[in-house]
Design goal:
lipopolysaccharide biosynthesis; Spore Coat Polysaccharide Biosynthesis Protein SpsA, Chain A; glycosyltransferase; 49% helix; 2 domains; transmembrane helix; Glyco_trans_2-like; 341 residues; single chain; 11 helices
Length: 341
């Protein structure tokens, strides 16, 4: 008895901040995948929906999103109340998705939707919950930024204990149940890839080639990237905190041994003059270490407090044009006033 092959449905989530120029071309490329297609590995798949998450950017992305949603029944807008950032917008899209798989794609066009088939093949072959794109060419950000990015990801492996940290990438394919679960429980300030690593049984990578970013530059400044790095370290685990504790214990042991040595030297008359310079050096080193330790502890406490306070990671609202703040609402109010006269 023959059975029909399983059709894998894929929800494509696109966080939109400044996509007024690039969204049309991106959705046009995805349109070719909205009909059933065969992956390079022979699996049957279909993009069942494209979730465009409006992250309240400075351009006319909302106008483009409305037009695309009206033109395609598989394009669904998700409206956020304010700008929350790429990772929060991605989680909002994941929470609103319904496909067997959820793919996150940047709005700027550097991710080729045609690679979705290869990502799906890798996920099925490796039985992986998450598949990250592994670029075979340098990202279009410049040599300095690319080098710093590689160094940051490598250091994250040691500081967080997550062996997959060096594979983190915004072009990713996630098992739908995992994606929606992570979006449901991850608290404010939690880095998306860190949260995925908490629950993913297996993570794989798939080589892809990045494209240029189109007509718009990257929206991430050095300060923003540094903030992302800090957030990944703080929410990635307590390994750094344990290192601080171990170093503090080591210094305490050394201090105790040094005190014994000084007492012994004093008893035997070896100490003639009290060493002011030595005392100041020890004081400065100890004080500096204490301050650094307090800073690290404060970062962890701050992250814990943000999550404990219940601050929402995102809030989904309806299209403002359909609400009381929209122009349609203003027109209806005017009509009602005329009717009452």
């Amino acid at each position: 008895m023959s059975t029909a092959p399983r059709e894998h449905t894929v929800s494509v989530v696109v966080p939109v901040y400044r996509g007024a120029v690039t969204l049309d071309a991106l959705v046009a490329e995805i349109a070719a995948l909205a009909e059933p297609f065969r992956t390079p590995g022979g699996h049957l798949a279909r993009v069942s929906e494209v979730v465009l998450v409006h992250d309240c950017g400075p351009d006319d992305s909302d106008v483009v999103i409305r037009r695309l949603a009206a033109a395609h029944d598989w394009v669904r807008p998700v409206w956020l109340s304010r700008n929350y950032g790429q990772h929060a917008a991605s989680m909002a899209g994941m929470a609103s998705s319904g496909g067997d798989w959820v793919a996150t794609i940047d709005e700027d066009g550097q991710h080729d939707p045609a690679d979705l088939g290869a990502l799906l093949d890798r996920a099925i072959t490796e039985r992986a919950d998450v598949v990250y794109a592994a670029p075979t060419n340098p990202a279009p950000h410049g040599a300095f930024r690319n080098t710093v990015s590689r160094g940051a990801k490598t250091s994250l492996r040691w500081m967080t204990g997550n062996r997959d940290a060096s594979s983190f990438h915004s072009y990713r394919l996630v098992l739908g149940e995992v994606a929606r679960s992570v979006a449901a429980y991850a608290g404010s300030g939690v880095y998306l890839d860190v949260a995925l690593g908490w629950v993913s049984r297996r993570v794989a990578t798939q080589p892809v080639r990045l494209r240029a970013e189109g007509d718009r530059p990257s929206g991430y400044s050095f300060g923003t990237l540094l903030s992302h790095y800090r957030r990944m370290v703080v929410t990635g685990g307590t390994r750094l905190l344990r290192v601080v504790s171990l170093v503090g214990l080591l210094l305490a042991v050394l201090g105790f041994l040094g005190a014994i040595a000084i007492v012994w030297a004093r008893i035997h008359g070896s100490v003639v003059v009290q060493g002011w310079a030595s005392m100041m050096v020890v004081t400065l080193i100890s004080s500096g270490f204490v301050l650094v330790s307090l800073g690290v502890v404060a970062e962890y406490v701050g992250a814990a407090v943000n999550m404990a306070l219940g601050r929402p990671l995102y809030v989904i609202v309806r299209d403002r044009e359909d609400g009381p703040l929209g122009s349609a609402g203003a027109v209806r109010a005017t009509d009602d006033e005329e009717a009452l006269r």
